[in-house]
Each structure stands twice: as C-alpha cells, then as structure tokens.
Amino acid sequence: MPKQILSPLPGTFYRRPAPDQPMYKNEGDSVAVGDVIGLIEVMKSFNEVKATEAGKIVKFLAENEDAVMAGQPLAELA
Amino acid sequence: MTIKKLLIANRGEIAVRIIRAARELGIKTVQVHSTADAESLAVKLADESVAIGPPQAAKSYLSIPAIIDAAKKTGADAVHPGYGFLAENAEFADACAVAALVFVGPSANAIRMMGDKVAAREAAMRAGVPTVPGSDGRVDDLETARRVIAETGFPIMIKAAAGGGGRGIRIATTQEEFDRLVPQAKAEALAAFGDGGLYLEKVIERARHIEVQILGDGHRAIHCFERECSLQRRRQKVWEEAPSVSLPESVRRKLCASAVSLAESVHYSGAGTLEYLYDDASGDFYFIEMNTRIQVEHPVTEFITGVDLVREMLRIAGGEKLRLKQSDIAIKGHAIEVRINAEDPAQNFMPAPGTVATLRVPGGNGVRFDTLLYQGYAIPPFYDSLLGKLIVWDEDRPAAIARLTRALNELEIGGVKTTRPLHLALAGDPSVQKADFHTRWLEGWLEANATKLAAE
Known about the structure:
The structure holds two protein chains of two kinds.
Chain A: E1 3-6, E2 11-14, E3 30-31, E4 36-42, E5 45-50, E6 55-60, E7 67-68, E8 73-77
Antiparallel strand pairs in A: 1-8, 2-4, 2-7, 3-6, 4-5, 6-8
Chain B: E1 5-8, H1 12-24, E2 28-34, H2 41-45, E3 48-53, H3 64-74, E4 78-80, H4 90-98, E5 102-103, H5 108-115, H6 117-126, H7 142-152, E6 156-164, E7 167-172, H8 175-193, E8 198-202, E9 208-217, E10 221-233, E11 236-242, H9 249-265, E12 269-279, E13 284-291, H10 298-305, H11 309-317, E14 334-341, E15 343-344, E16 350-351, E17 358-360, E18 367-371, E19 386-394, H12 397-410, E20 412-414, H13 420-427, H14 430-433, H15 441-448, H16 450-455
Parallel strand pairs in B: 1-2, 1-4, 2-3, 4-5
Antiparallel strand pairs in B: 6-7, 6-8, 9-10, 9-12, 10-11, 11-14, 12-13, 14-19, 15-16, 17-20, 18-19
Helix pairs in contact in B: 4-5, 12-13
C-alpha cells in the first residue's frame, strides 16, 4: 500500500493558493510533515491540506478544482 | 399573469421559496441543478428539473449559457435568480433579455448602477439621501484621498467600487497604514472584481444596520418598512428582525421615505433593499448600498406586513402594475429570523456538512421554517452553509423572543452540527433582549462567550 495524502474534508480541491499563483507542490517535489499541498473549499471556507507523512509526491490523484469526498486520496507519496 | 413557466436559477431554501410562490400563482416551475443537487428538495418540488453542470458553482449555477440553454430546452418564459449566484449580474439580465426571457428583477441598467457602489452613492446623493461622509466618487490619487481624510479623520474605510455585501473592505487607522493599504486594496479589487476602483468612507462606530424593503414597478415605488440586522459575524448577518425597536417614529418615516425616493429616482422595478447605517445616539442615518434582489431575511417583512414579497416580484415581472398603495402597508407585531447554518459554533463556526439523520421541524402559531432539509438528505459541501431560516412572529418583541426560544427548542436536526445553540444563547442574553447592540457587538460577545459555546 503506497503512502497517500487523504482529503480531511469533503469539498473542492485546489492545488494553488489563488488562481494566479503557482501550485503548492508539483509531482516529484519532496514534502515534510505539515507541508501544505492544497486547499479544500467546504461551504465557502478554505482549509489547508497538510502532508501527514514525509516523502516525495509521485502523483496527484485529484485534479485542481475536483470535487472530493472526505478520506479520498489526493496524492501518492513514495 | 403573463409568466407561464418559471426557471429558478438558484438552489437551496430560496429555490423552494420561489417554487412555492410560483405554484400559488399557477406558474409551472423548472429547477436547474448541479449534479451535487440532483436530490435537492427544490428538484423534488419543481414540475421539471434540468442538470446544468458539475458541483462547482462556477460551472453550474454561475454558467449563463447553461442556464439560458435550460430555459430554451424547457420552454420557460421567465427566470428568477434568487439571491447570490447571478442575482446581481447585469450580464445575466442582458442575456435573459436577448433570449426573450423575463428576468424577475430590475433592469440590467439598475443592476449595473447599484452594483457600482460609487454610482449608487452618487444616485443616493442626487435623490437627497444621506450617505456616509467620504469621497465624492472614485479616488484616483493620494492627493484627493488626503483631502477626504482631512475632513473625515481616521479610522477610514477603503472600499472597492465593485465590492458590496461586506467584501472588498479595508480599514486604515493611520496615514502610514492608509498609504500601505491603498495599493493592496486596488490590486485585490482588480483581481476579485475586475475593477480596481476605490472609494473612501468614514467609519461609523457603534452603528446599527438598518435596511428598508422596497417594491417598485418602474414608475412608482412603495416601502414595506425596515429590518434591523445588527447581529453580524464577519459582516454576515446572523439574526434579523422587523421592525427595528431602535428607531423613533419620526426617523422611521424619514428613512423609509428616503428609500422610496431613491428607488423611484432610478425607476426601480421589483423587490429591492436599501441598506443604511444608523447612529442611535445622534438619530442620523446613512445610505451604504442597495441590493437589487430578494434578500435572505425577507420573511420578517412578510410577517409584519402580510405582503408576500416573492409573489409581488413575480406579478411585477409579469407586467402588472404595483397593486399596493403605501397606505395599504402597516406594521403589525414583531418578527425575528435566525439563520440555521451547518456550522459548529463550538469550533469557531467550522462548516459541518453531513447527512440529516432525523429532522423535527418546529411549528405552531407564528412560526415559519424555510429550509432545504428533509430527513435523509446529504448536505453537499459545495455551497453556502445556510440550511434554513427559523422565523417567528408575535405581538411584540419580548413575546417574539419567547416564541423563538420555544421554536428553537423544538427544532432538531440530527447528525449535523448547526448554529441552533448560538441562537438559543443569544435569545437568552440580556443585551439581545434589550436590543442593546450594534454591528460589532456580536463579535465581542462571541469572544467573551467562546468557552460557554464550546461547552454546549
């Protein structure tokens, strides 16, 4: 079972802090525990998604602006 | 009635409200919905429904082509935009006109003028309505800004011309802060609204938020008296009532007359609300903005006047003249509305979508619950947290608060955290009972009562 970052909440997943800003993280980037990898918008409030384990992002499993469920994998770590 | 089939370009409790009004007038209804709202109460109640896109509002409820297309496909001849989403979007009103659809609301020009907060301020001044002291129009250079500040002093509000509804506002308390905030505010307004225009307003400390409901048919306008919405959190209304017990009769008369005069001066058609700040120490009131749509808190006005505002909107949009005269409108008793949101007051109002396990709706004399809920409903996380509005009416304010407390105790939404405990605490608070509050009162109260709310 590969390591994954799961969505803590249901809502809309964003990979950038704002539409005109760069991605928080790209595939191939390393993350430390607590690094922000995206935002979940739930009922118009924005919540940061943080890495709960350290590793390297192999692949994002949800696209920017995807609707996601709580517990859905957002990224795969190696 | 010329409207035969109405498309509802909205969701949630207001969509349900509009379907009810339409049905009573014999109008067929078409409910558009995102894929996340396929099981919504509005979809279940409407005569027809059309899926218009994915959950994200930008791709569904804000998609003008998808909505116009749904209207054409179903043969709807009118569109009600509700509140939020496209309700104050002049391009949408234009697109409806191009598609030969009746837009239930004012003209695109009226929306455009009132949507530009500087133009609205200027229209108010022309109609003789007092505005908050500040800049005459847009402020383009720091020199003009300094002249305004010399008159108003600090603190001063820097507001986006294209903002409104509490968005795009910054407060500067010193010249240094002002010089630093202006470029930021300009850049942010440009990014958020596509218009970097700014204007300045003096900060009125300890003001009450009072708004006047009006109805117009393009020629004549009447008012349905005022609402007071001073209890706000982060500039969002939490508890609204009508009438305002803080207004002496002489001020009420002047305030409501000023609203009618502004509405008539712009040939306003439909339901609209003029928002004011009221300084109860001096008796002065100042126009801040006009909302060119039905508002969330409209039921308190319906309770005290007996006028069905959504029905009147549909009649006017259908081409009828205003049926009511000013002398037909009188205040009877007192009404209070509280917003039941899917938010946990014990955890800093964290949004709490979930599935409604059980639902017990309060009832009895003078109680109304406008909601999108039903038992078993899974509340989608993509939209506003408003689940419903509990509205009560009684002979006077103390009786209305007692009735509100009784109704809140009956209300049970199993499986979802809501703002119900907040409203119970507010209803029991001595300051609320005395109506001794202003627009910043609730935030202070929330800080002081954080531990109490966390323990609920």
